[in-house]
Automatic annotation (TrEMBL):
Originating gene: hisS
Gene Ontology terms, MF aspect: ATP binding; histidine-tRNA ligase activity
UniProt cross-references to NCBIfam families, sorted A to Z: hisS (TIGR00442)
Protein name, as recorded: Histidine--tRNA ligase
CDD domains given in the database record: HisRS-like_core, HisRS_anticodon
Record's keyword terms, sorted: Aminoacyl-tRNA synthetase, ATP-binding, Cytoplasm, Ligase, Nucleotide-binding, Protein biosynthesis
Organism: Brevundimonas lenta
Enzyme Commission number, as recorded: 6.1.1.21
Domain of life: Bacteria
Residues in Aminoacyl-transfer RNA synthetases class-II family profile domain copies: 29-381
Subunit structure: Homodimer.
Family of the protein in this entry: Belongs to the class-II aminoacyl-tRNA synthetase family.
Family annotation (InterPro entries): aa-tRNA-synth_II, aa-tRNA-synth_II/BPL/LPL, Anticodon-bd, Anticodon-bd_dom_sf, His-tRNA-ligase, HisRS-like_core, HisRS/HisZ, HisRS_anticodon
Lineage: Bacteria, Pseudomonadati, Pseudomonadota, Alphaproteobacteria, Caulobacterales
Compartments where found: Cytoplasm
């Protein structure tokens, strides 16, 4: 078969892997930059680990011997060891801390961002590759370390574009349930896990649905039956009492703890968890973190087989809509908690750790859907129009002057005419187009089209002929005023957005 007759490959994305360009990429990069500045100001250092980890370092995501690609993307190294693309940014941190703990400052405070990969079934909004951003403190068991992570997460969300009151971080402690189960004589791990999964559905099912799942089970609207945890009635009653405290947003953090304590039945472990939450509250108050920004909510469970103490979840409070104006609910936009057992997998010794993570693409999408996206990030460069090869030096001079002045600019390098070049500038989202025709060059002038003004005026146009005659958004200035005129247009567009 000749090369000419060879079948052509189909141009297609692997499922679960998305191409992203322009607006989305710039918005996400700026989001990470702004959040990173917050993390560094709080004394966290950046850390970058490799994309691959040895498969046995991935903890609960460790592939079994028969299916080395279960949940992860894995391959064999030349020494027959299985490596896998990292599933998250926490497992690499645990390996890094265990590997070099003797040389690290203790506690070790780091933040990281980058892509992670999951070999799971893709679906709408569910990708096999996405970007995460984490901040963690390893080596401190103090509740103040949890409080600091929570407070920093609040500041990071504001840096990302959310004003106060547009998100809330809900906090609880996994040991509340550990104590409740122990005091109630519930020792079966499956029974406890089933109960925690039921409690995790409280915001969606309410107490009636959760109560059924804590008991015999529940038949949902589709007709599917979910087997329940069969908890003792006394334990279920205690859960009902302290979940009720989550429904009153008027309660302060301290008042919520008092309501949970009154429910009783938490045992010594649960009482210890309340003390830890009280210490977190004191530290948050000292850092001037408002009661609206961080609330205690005993329904927060998170990471059923992962977290060991305090857990927190950031929730978007704004109304959000999709591209067609339909309401969508983002709910959680980040979360974290205390995980004191992760490093021990390598060292055999418990090493306390706490952290917060958010999906960069998800947060950027949530901000955009809430009308809080970085509109400046969609702006294209100023476009310098090209008329004649003979005048190329004038065009190159103009675009260089703009760039040297800090204005994003490009020289049109296609071979289309004036009309197509203006359409190109509009498609690029350019704030302005620079026109240096023969007449302008001879007169020492330049014509600048304010494309934003033109777009705004075009929305109300009723007479095309008048529109053409008036040339809205177009001005002729002295050639020496090119940079100052364009900068004024760009700055006005940025201020308006």
């Amino acid at each position: 078969m000749t090369d000419a007759a060879a079948p052509r490959p189909e141009a297609r994305n692997p499922r679960g892997f998305a191409d992203r360009r322009g607006r989305d990429l710039v918005a996400e990069r700026r989001l990470v930059q702004r959040v990173s500045e917050v993390y560094e100001r709080w004394g966290f250092e950046p850390l970058e680990t490799g994309a691959f980890e040895y498969a046995d370092a991935l903890g609960k995501f460790l592939p079994d011997a028969d299916r080395p690609n279960e949940g992860v993307f894995a391959l064999q190294d030349d020494d027959d060891q299985w490596m896998a693309l990292r599933y998250d940014l926490t497992a690499p941190l645990a390996r890094f801390a265990a590997q070099g703990w003797e040389t690290l400052p203790k506690p070790f405070r780091r933040y990281a961002f980058g892509p992670v990969w999951r070999n799971e079934k893709p679906g709408p909004g569910r990708f096999r590759e996405f970007v995460q951003c984490d901040a963690d403190t390893v080596g401190s068991d103090r509740p103040e370390a949890d409080a600091e992570i929570i407070a920093m997460a609040c500041e990071g969300l504001q840096a990302a574009g959310l004003a106060p009151g547009q998100a809330v971080v809900r906090v609880s402690n996994r040991k509340l349930f550990d104590g409740l189960f122990e005091a109630g004589g519930v020792t079966d791990p499956i029974q406890k896990l089933t109960a925690l999964r039921a409690i995790d559905k409280f915001d969606r099912l309410g107490w009636e649905g959760v109560s059924a799942l804590l008991g015999e089970g529940r038949l949902d609207e589709s007709g599917d039956y979910t087997k329940g945890a069969n908890l003792p009635l006394g334990v279920a009653a205690t859960i009902e009492a302290f979940l009720a405290s989550a429904g009153d947003a008027a309660l302060s953090r301290a008042e919520t703890l008092e309501a949970v304590a009154r429910a009783g039945g938490l045992g010594a472990i649960g009482e210890g968890a309340l003390n830890e939450l009280a210490a977190i509250d004191r530290a948050l108050n000292a850092m001037k973190v408002s009661q609206d920004a961080v609330r205690f909510d005993p329904t927060i469970v998170r990471g059923l087989e992962y977290y060991t103490g305090a857990v927190f979840e950031a929730e978007l409070l704004l109304d959000t809509t999709d591209e067609k104006g339909r309401a969508v609910r983002f709910g959680s936009i980040g979360g974290g908690g205390r995980y004191d057992d992760l490093v021990a997998r390598f060292t055999g010794e418990r090493l306390p750790a706490t952290g917060f993570s958010f999906g960069v693409s998800r947060l950027a999408s949530a901000l955009r859907a809430a009308g809080r996206g970085d509109e400046d990030s969609v702006r294209g460069p100023v476009v310098v129009i090209v008329f004649s090869e003979d005048d190329m030096q004038h065009y190159l001079d103009a675009v260089s002057e703009l760039r040297n002045a800090g204005v994003a600019a490009e020289l049109y390098l296609g071979r289309a005419g004036m009309k197509a070049q203006m359409k190109y500038a509009d498609r690029r989202g350019a704030p302005a187009a620079v026109i240096l025709g023969g007449d302008e060059i001879a007169a020492g002038q330049v014509t600048i089209k304010d494309l934003d003004a033109g777009r705004a005026l075009a929305a109300g146009v009723t007479d095309n002929e008048a529109w053409k005659a008036e040339r809205p958004g177009q001005r002729v200035v002295a050639r020496a005023e090119l940079v100052s005129t364009v900068r004024a247009i760009v700055d006005a567009a940025r201020t308006a957005s």
